[in-house]
Amino acid sequence: MIKVGTVVAGLFLAVASAKAADPALSAAANASYLAGNEKVKGVISRPDGLQYRIIQNGSGKHPALTDKVEVYYTGRLINGEEFDGTEDGFPRVFAVQNLIPGWKEALLIMREGDHWQLTIPAQLAYGARGSQDGSIPPGQTLVFDLHLLRVVSKSPEEVQREQAEKAQEEERHPGPGAGGTDY
Q: Which of 7, 70, 117, 182 pairs with 48 at a CA distance of 20 to 30 A?
């Protein structure tokens, strides 16, 4: 008897293989897309290959790597196929440190209220492996419309837990000069 998980995994592999075979998603097509996008008016290219275009400037605070952010977004492959996104009225909250490198990098320089178009090369996205669910084939440049609504404040419980963890860590490793020794 075939297990359902095996069948589902096989279907994901078949879908990913079919997408990867699409000539519009080839390595050459991805390289060409990045090269062409870099020449678009208003596109800023960072040294590691991340490209962004500011649609609207915000004026709020910058998130930190340890923050959570509330966003609206749409993610597409270079052939225009949408693979993920939010719906109006239903933003998503993400922990910045758990995101793909291209999102992390962009979010750390964005401000609350910013609305950007991100073009993320494969090495800053899912790389040679593609996404686990098969929706993004290996080696794909990703294009996101990203609107940073706000940096989500930590709950009092989260702050208290972090302070307790820090205090425990300091008790275990008190640091130089601990124990009352004067020099």
A: 70
